[in-house]
Design a protein that fits this description.
Layout lengths: L3 H15 L4 E6 L10 H8 L2 E9 L2 E8 L12 E5 L5 E5 L9 E7 L4 E5 L6 E5 L14 H8 L6 H6 L9 H11 L12 H20 L40 E5 L2 E5 L6
Antiparallel strand pairs: 1-6, 2-3, 3-4, 4-8, 5-7, 6-7, 9-10
This protein binds a DNA duplex (16 and 16 nucleotides) through loops.
DNA sequence: ACTATGTCCTGCGAGC
DNA sequence: TGCTCGCAGGACATAG
């Protein structure tokens, strides 16, 4: 499932491959169920636009669009195409002759002759267009310690839930929340407000570190995640607790436990994490 | 203002 | 072998 490192990897790959290309036409399937925009709005916003850049914001992929025609000093506002991959969404750059995969919900024909396709079996992904996208939460890689600590102040919710709350931090999902909590030696059910400043320092550092390591590894390939070139990431090999229920803790050999927090499976070491 | 829970959706793997 | 069933999860809706 694409979280921050996977989305970062995908956005970088797409930026290399499609930035500078022009969207000639757009086909949209019946229900990509865009959040704020109808299929017509999306198609209208994308058609004959230049993709000036692709980048990540939180778990969102942001395509910056510009008018492709030189002429008329464009007073028209530039728009951004926002793609959220949900659980199983993927964006693929394909030769037009290649077979259209099942669950393809959008196809963009590019001036270069290639196609950019959005495929999403589970349909949790979302497409939308907006003038200026702003993530509701803070970027975990950029946030200062004081801002980080303030996010959790007075919150009774389990720290695991708080980490997953995109209004607080943008981009942290189930895998990296578990991995960061393990590295910081904090149990997922701990009330966020109960974390000491030292806990918070370790947590912020662990989160940044695990996200950066995962980006360097090209993300975690779980289920069918691949990047823009179809390459798998390999950070899943470095997971210390996620998906390791019953297996020995890599530090103390105690079996890793799995519990449910906020309806999400959460993995931790009962010996190493307090 | 927070927090907790249910919902969406399909593929896959466990279990019989 | 082949079937059913339950689980996986991000973000929103709804209820408390």
């Amino acid at each position: 499932m694409p979280e921050l490192p996977e989305v970062e990897t995908i956005a970088r790959g797409l930026n290399q491959r499609v930035a500078g290309d022009v969207i000639e036409s757009v086909w949209l399937g019946s229900k990509p169920e865009p959040l704020k925009s109808s299929a017509q709005e999306i198609a209208a916003a994308l058609e004959s636009k230049l993709i000036s850049s692709v980048r990540r914001v939180g778990k969102h992929i942001v395509f910056a669009l510009a008018h492709s025609k030189n002429g008329a000093s464009n007073s028209a506002k530039e728009t951004q195409w926002i793609v959220h991959l949900g659980m199983t969404g993927s964006l693929r750059v394909c030769p037009p002759a290649s077979e259209v995969a099942k669950h393809t919900h959008a196809i963009l024909k590019l001036a270069s002759g290639r196609e950019l396709r959005f495929v999403d079996p589970r349909r949790f992904g979302r497409l939308s267009v907006i003038e200026k996208f702003k993530a509701p939460g803070s970027e975990p890689l950029d946030i200062s310690f004081e801002d980080f600590a303030a996010l959790f102040h007075g919150r009774k919710t389990p720290i695991k839930s708080a980490l997953l709350n995109q209004k607080l931090l943008s981009g942290v999902g189930n895998i990296y929340a578990d991995e960061a909590l393990f590295r910081a030696k904090i149990r997922p059910r701990r009330r966020a407000s109960s974390l000491t400043r030292d806990d918070l320092r370790r947590l912020r550092a662990a989160l940044k570190k695990v996200l950066q390591e995962a980006i360097r590894a090209g993300g975690s390939s779980i289920s069918d995640y691949v990047d823009a070139d179809g390459e798998e990431g390999f950070f899943q090999l470095k997971h210390r607790v996620y998906g390791r229920e019953g297996k020995p803790c890599l530090v103390c050999k105690m079996p890793v436990k799995r519990i449910v927090v906020a309806g999400r499976s959460s993995h931790y070491c009962p010996h190493c994490q307090m």
